[in-house]
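Support request, priority: normal
Reporter: lab tech (M.K.)
Component: structure prediction queue

Hi team, I submitted a job for Trp biosynthesis-associated membrane protein from Blastococcus saxobsidens yesterday, and the status page still shows it as pending. I've pasted the exact input below so you can check whether something in the sequence is tripping the parser. The sequence length should be 207 residues. Please let me know if I need to resubmit or if it's stuck on your end.
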Amino acid sequence: MTDGGGRRELSGAVLGAVVAGVLALSASGQRWADVTAQRRSPLPPVSGALSGGDVAPLVTAAGLVLLAAAVALLAVRGVGRAAVGLVTAAAGGALVWSGVRVLTGGVADAAVDLPGLSGSSIVSTSVDASPVWPVLALVAGLLALAAGLVTTVRGRSWPAMGRRYERTPATVRPRTDEDRAQDAWKALDRGEDPTEPPPPARNADPV
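Reply from support: The job had stalled in the queue. We restarted it manually and it finished. Here are the results:
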């Protein structure tokens, strides 16, 4: 693989981890569901709201892990980069699992933990869940999973991001007749005789 192709893949993996992390954190802070509990008469019904952190706490944790992984991808190489890819894929898997769990009815389990929505006075509980934020977490998980798997498989061969800026040491060019002629003219300009050998270097007097 050429350095150019490796850098493009590395940039894509970093961008994928960043976008997935931002999507996950954005989704976790939103209102995922409204819960209403009917209580025994004459008590009125009570209601509450569930955020992504209440329903799927792994979403927030996975988002933070992905942002940290994006930075780590730029800092490490070789086996270390492949290990970061595994962590990225694991965070993506957690997001996928959280999104699927909520979309398949996992909100009711979190509703019982809301204050006032559990106890012997509760007759029934209804949940009005929004599918938008679980789907967003699911999309973020798939993106992170793809970035992590690509990094795990191909990341060892990717170059370091700063390699293009490294300078190779300059090679010493042998002196030519033209160089020596120019040195002679410069010596004449200074009033020196270019045919005389240079004076020997003097050592510093010992103390």
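Residues 3-165 form one domain. Helices lie at 3-28, 52-55, 57-75, 79-111, 132-154, 177-189. Let us know if anything else looks off. Ticket resolved.
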